[in-house]
Amino acid sequence: MNMRLGALLPRAVLVALAWVLATAAFTLAADKSIIGPSAPGTTTAAAPPTLTIPAVTGQAFVFAKGLLEDAGFAWRVSGPVHGYAGNQVVSQTPGAGTRVVDTGAPTVVLRLAKSSYAQKGVPEDSSSYPGTRIELAGSPASSLPHAPATTKTAKTKPAVKKPPARKPAKKPKPAAPAKRTPAFHAPGTKKEPLNEISLPARADRLAAWIATKPRHTNANVRRWLYQHAWIVDGANFGWWHGDQALVKLIEVDRNAERMWGIGHRSEVIARAALARVRRLSR
User: Fold this and answer.
1) Which part of the chain has CATH 3.30.10.20?
2) Cis peptide before 94 (omega within 30 of 0)
3) DSSP type of residue 110
4) Whose CA is closest to 252, among 240, 268, 267?
C-alpha cells in the first residue's frame, strides 16, 4: 500500500502544477484584453499675454504719452508736428481698445496737431526705451474648445420669500478740491486738473517709492519717467507750487542715477524747468 501511494504522489503533483500554470496564463490574457494600450496624452499651449491700447486721441501729448507708458506701451510721433508737451493727439495707430500681444513694449504711433503753447526746447518724438512690434491678439472665443451640449431636466424649486431690500445709505458728497493759485499764466497752457494730486504731493510719492530702491526693470523705469514728465510739464504750465515739486524731483533724479545710472539727463531737464519757473514767477 505504501509503495502504491509513493507512485501516485508525483503524478498528482504534476497535475496540480499544470492546472496552476494554465490558470495564470488565462488570467494574464484576460488582463491584457481588458486594459489595452493607453492613449497618448495631449498638451494645450497657453495663450500669450495681451494688452489693450488706451484711448489718447484728443489728449494733450504730455498726458497721452504717460497713459501709454503706464499701460505698458512704447510710442513714437509721426508727421510734421513734433512731440511738444502742449500739442494735441489727433490720431493713434492702432486705435483705442485694440487688443495686442504683449511683445515687451508694443509701439503706438501718434499724430499731433500744434497748440497755441510755444514750441520750445527739444521735442520728444519717441519713448525713452525701445519699442517692440505690434501683433494683434486673436479672438479668445476661437481658441477655446466648445463643450458638448447636454440636456438636463429642470427641477422646480419652491419659491423662497426674500426679505425686503434695505435702502442704501446716502454717501456723503465729496469735498470740493482746494483752490490752487497758479504760479504764472502763459498763453495756451493747460489748467491744472483739481481732481489730481498737487505737484508737490506727486513728487513726495515718487521720492518715497524711489527710497524703497525698486529694481531696474522696464516697468519701474516707465513709472519714474511718467511721473517725472507730469511734474516737469505741469510746472512749465505754471501749476501750483511747481518750483517746490521740481526741487524734490531733482533729488529723486539723483537717487535714480545712483541706483540705475540713468537719472542725469532727467535731472538736467528738471533743473532747466526750475530755472524757467522761477524766472516766470517773479
Assistant:
1) 50-137
2) yes
3) E
4) 267
DSSP strand pairing (99-101 vs 50-52): antiparallel
Write down how long the chain is: 282
What 95-98 contacts at long range (C-beta under 8 Å, 24+ apart), as own/partner pairs, is 95/53, 96/53, 96/54, 96/55, 96/56, 96/57, 97/52, 97/53, 97/55, 98/52, 98/53, 98/136
Confidence of residue 13 (pLDDT cuts 50, 70, 90): low
The answer to whether 86 and 57 are in contact (CB under 8 A) is no
The residues facing 110 across adjacent strands are 77, 92
pTM: 0.47
Asked if 98 and 52 touch (Cβ cutoff 8 Å), the reply is yes
Band (pLDDT 50/70/90 cuts) for residue 199 is very high
For residue 123, give the C-alpha cell: 521735442
- Least confident range from 28-37, 95-104, 175-184: namely 28-37
Buried b (16+ CB within 10 A) or exposed e, 201-220: ebbbebeeebeeebeeeeeb
* Domain made up of 50-137: CATH architecture: 2-Layer Sandwich (3.30)
Q: Is the pLDDT of residue 239 over 70?
A: yes
Nearest to 189 by CA among 263, 115, 122: 115
Assign 265 to helix, strand or coil: helix
- Cell 442704501, residue located: 168
